[in-house]
Design a protein that fits this description.
The structure holds two protein chains of two kinds.
Chain A lengths: L6 H33 L2 H5 L13 H9 L2 H32 L5 H13 L2 H15 L5 H5 L6 H12 L5 H7 L4 H12 L1 H17 L2 H6 L8 H10 L7 H20 L1 H12 L3
Helix pairs in contact in A: 1-14, 3-14, 4-8, 4-11, 8-11, 9-10, 11-15, 13-14, 14-15
Chain B lengths: L1 H8 L2 H31 L1 E3 L6 E3 L3 H7 L2 H32 L4 H15 L2 H11 L6 H8 L14 H26 L3 H9 L4 H29 L3 H6 L11 H10 L5 H31 L1
Antiparallel strand pairs in B: 1-2
Classes of the chains: A mainly alpha, B mainly alpha.
Chain lengths: 280, 297
């Protein structure tokens, strides 16, 4: 369709591109400043007038953050927690989602509604009893304690169910006629068909657990068990440092892994958000 | 015997229970029990050392309703929700409308706008705290150059909440945008073409086609953002810790402090989280109803 150069179109177009340009700047500027700041020498961070990129750079802030707090342990814990819970959640959510989407059994509707209801109760409401429960189970400050409560989510079940529902009908009937058992049908035939769903849910879960703050903060009091988010928040919150560089370096270290993933799997990041928006 | 057990469980109607088992047991252990626990503990006098424990009746709830700090936290949470949510949806909507096309510039913009969503609130909080720091921050320096001086942002009781809200919008508007872009892209182009032929202006098309067609998506964003904003914690915890002068202390922040730092009163904290649940349900049920009714139309 041909664009008409009416006065309205030109003015709206100008407003649109100028606003978008400013917005892109507003989003990018703090990030660029953060990355540059992490490499600045401390003196330049404190210097007046402040600069964006700076002229003297070093890795001093990075070595300082590793000396102040056990970053390598935080990094390890975050990886174990987020990859562990994501892997288990992918398995269990797709098993449950598959059952709700493709199998008929007694109590299906009741169980499904019950699961949806748990989705409505925010974590913050349950955090104190969850803390006590983990204490009594003896899993506070352990990887099990971090991973077990997160190894399935009502949202994930809901999402995988919608992916399985979209598959063509009677797909599994043919396999049943061939005498394959239910587990083989699920793992060998059905699961490979929902790979995009698994990737989308996986990214969603990974991002949430990597960035989660309140949950690991509560479940881990031991320094050796903290995740990056919790460890950094406590480090900054305690005002334990008068240096600014290490704080910036810590922030950079914590966001780089997800940023790299985002660059390669952008489609799935956006899809994970978008599918959470289409609830039918 | 084994074969018979195998055959029994291999029927689809039976295998389903095996498939569901891990999820159901996890949700029961770590969602249903804690939820019931929250209500029970809310009625108990309990601290983290178990030095006291006993039935407290409605004492905790009465305490909350007469606790000035609770009302302050509730007020702050409400202020946050009432400003942050409409702002985020408005910006998300306008941006989504501008970048929902398939041009390179649109795609590039969407990539950039989603970047902050990927970053953790802990990192974003650190970044904003230093960027807006009154003495060494870059933003106060720039403002000084144009004649605005002495703003302390996170440290100013009057500005702290506004700064926390701005930071949250900065981090999250890309999220709302992504949901709405999908919604806009699924609106049939024939509507727009018909409107164009009838001579409807761009603004008219936006108000009379885009917005009505997006109503379910907007409703969804409203519900999830509202519920999320009532649970606001991370951004406050990493920047102001509830200060200055409790001006940014939110409900969850206060619950967390009550339960997990001095005075470690789990019973009282839990009763406040039950109140939080009641607020959330009161708010979300009417909204849910509205959104679902719209969908049926």
């Amino acid at each position: 369709m041909k664009m008409k150069f009416t006065r309205e179109n030109i003015i709206l177009g100008l407003i649109k591109y100028i606003t978008l340009g400013l917005l892109i700047f507003a989003v990018l500027f703090p990030l660029v400043w953060l990355f540059a700041g992490a490499f600045k020498v401390e003196k330049q961070i404190l210097s007046y007038p402040p600069t964006i990129i700076g002229t003297k750079h070093s890795l001093k802030s990075f070595s300082r953050i590793f000396q102040s707090i056990p970053m390598e342990i935080y990094l390890k814990n975050t990886i174990i927690f987020s990859l562990g819970s994501t892997t288990l959640a992918l398995l269990f959510d797709s098993l449950a989602g598959y059952a709700f989407a493709r199998l008929n059994f007694r109590g299906k509707n009741f169980l499904f509604v019950a699961i949806l209801l748990t989705m409505m109760v925010p974590f913050q409401v349950m955090m104190i009893p969850l803390f006590l429960e983990s204490h009594f189970l003896g899993i506070l400050n352990t990887y099990q304690g971090l991973i077990l409560p997160k190894m399935t989510t009502a949202f994930g079940i809901f999402m995988m169910r919608s992916y399985f529902t979209q598959l063509p009908k009677d797909l599994e009937e043919a396999a049943r006629v061939d005498g394959l058992n239910e587990a083989v049908i699920f793992f060998k035939i059905m699961l490979p068909l929902v790979k995009p769903g698994l990737l989308t849910l996986g990214i969603f879960h990974l991002m949430n657990s990597w960035n989660d703050l309140l949950y690991p903060l509560m479940m881990t009091s031991d320094v050796k068990m903290r995740t990056l988010s919790a460890g950094l928040a406590l480090f900054v919150g305690e005002r334990a440092t008068t240096y600014y560089g290490p704080q910036l370096a810590g922030a950079v270290i914590s966001i780089i892994p997800l940023l790299l993933l985002y660059i390669f799997f952008q489609r799935y990041f956006v899809a994970s958000v978008a599918t959470s928006g289409i609830k039918d | 015997m084994l074969k018979r057990i195998g055959a029994y469980w291999n029927k689809p109607s039976k295998a389903a229970y095996l498939f569901l088992f891990p999820s159901l047991i996890t949700l029961f252990l770590f969602a249903v029990i804690p939820l019931c626990g929250a209500i029970i503990i809310g009625f108990m006098d309990l601290d983290i050392y178990f030095s006291k424990s006993g039935f407290a009746g409605f004492n905790n709830f009465i305490k909350a309703l007469t606790d000035e700090r609770f009302w302050n936290a509730l007020k702050n949470t409400a202020v946050f929700a009432l400003i942050e949510v409409p702002l985020q949806i408005l910006i998300g909507l306008l941006v989504a409308n501008a970048v929902a096309t398939t041009s390179f510039f649109s795609k590039f913009s969407r990539t950039i706008f989603f970047l902050p969503v990927v970053c953790s609130m802990a990192a974003v909080g650190i970044m904003w705290s230093i960027l807006f720091d009154g003495t060494i921050g870059f933003i106060p320096y720039v403002l000084k150059q144009i004649g605005i001086e002495g703003l302390a942002f996170f440290r100013d009781p009057k500005m702290a909440m506004g700064t926390v809200i701005s930071m949250t919008v900065w981090k999250n508007f890309g999220y709302t945008m992504s949901i709405l872009v999908v919604g806009i892209q699924s609106i049939s182009t024939s509507y727009y073409e018909a409107a164009k032929i009838d001579g409807a202006s761009k603004l008219n098309r936006f108000f009379y086609i885009t917005i009505p067609c997006l109503a379910p998506n907007l409703g969804f964003c409203l519900i999830t953002n509202l519920i999320g904003s009532l649970q606001v914690f991370d951004q406050v915890y990493v920047t102001t810790q509830g200060g200055p002068q409790y001006k940014t202390e939110t409900l969850v922040q206060y619950i967390y402090k009550t339960g997990f730092s001095h005075p470690f009163e789990l019973g009282y904290a839990s009763s406040m989280s039950v109140l939080l649940l009641i607020f959330i349900l009161l708010l979300s049920f009417p909204l849910y109803k509205k959104v679902f009714m719209q969908k049926e139309m």
